[in-house]
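Postdoc handover notes: sequence design on the structure in folder B. Input tokens:
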């Protein structure tokens, strides 16, 4: 029997028509049991257009942040596998399908998309500044965190429901640093993390401001390092060596 799939898409000020087309492609390619949009500070236009898309639409009057939206969405799912994708469609459904196939093969319980994988195909690059900051951050993260990945921040990840039960209780980041924390917690808890190449195109109308986001991520790197060190220490205390 094929594992059931739930899809969560966190969104803040999305283009409702672009997102609606992406939702149609997701349903066609992945055939998920549930597609849940976690929409922050929606306009009437957002709700009107997306409500016609036959999805589970959850709205928040506050801007919770990407991490808080994904966590809320995953916690609301009742499927075997949870997957999230960014609302701008920068990860095409063909790559999202590859990520889901990897975890359905039962090789890993956590799977992440990677723009820096040697087999990834980049259709439209970020600006030079964003590429430099992203590469610098990835190097710093690999040096200090328990999970050694090429790309911590790619906007497509999936996890088995039982693994999320363990990982999710340690995820506190509400913003863009959630991806970093999710991967790091999975690593320190001992989960194998599959890194899958993707096709990816930078979105020029992204709501991500590179400089403030970079500072946010660097500050979060220190916090996540401290939290994962505490998790590792607690695990060592509970399972002493003989």
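Designed sequence:
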């Amino acid at each position: 029997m094929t594992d059931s799939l739930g899809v969560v898409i966190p969104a803040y000020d999305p283009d409702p028509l672009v997102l609606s087309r992406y939702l149609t492609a997701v349903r066609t390619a992945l055939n998920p049991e549930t597609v849940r949009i976690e929409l922050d500070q929606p306009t009437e236009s957002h709700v009107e257009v997306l409500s016609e898309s036959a999805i589970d639409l959850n709205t928040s009057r506050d801007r919770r942040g990407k991490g808080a939206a994904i966590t809320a969405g995953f916690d609301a799912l009742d499927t075997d596998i949870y997957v999230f994708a960014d609302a701008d469609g920068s990860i095409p459904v063909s790559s999202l399908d590859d990520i889901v196939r990897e975890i359905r093969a039962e090789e890993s319980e956590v799977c992440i998309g990677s723009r820096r994988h040697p087999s990834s195909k980049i259709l439209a690059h970020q600006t030079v500044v964003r590429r430099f900051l992203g590469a610098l951050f990835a190097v710093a993260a690999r040096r200090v965190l328990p999970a050694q990945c090429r790309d911590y921040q790619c906007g497509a990840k999936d996890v088995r429901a039982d693994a999320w039960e363990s990982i999710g209780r340690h995820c506190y980041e509400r913003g863009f640093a959630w991806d970093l924390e999710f991967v790091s917690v999975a690593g320190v808890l001992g989960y194998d993390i599959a890194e899958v190449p993707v096709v990816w195109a930078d979105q020029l109308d992204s709501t991500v401001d590179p400089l403030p986001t970079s500072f946010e991520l660097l500050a979060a790197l220190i916090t996540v390092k401290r939290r994962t060190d505490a998790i590792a220490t607690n695990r060592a205390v509970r399972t002493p060596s003989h």
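Context for whoever picks this up: The chain has a mean pLDDT of 89. Don't rerun without checking with the PI first.
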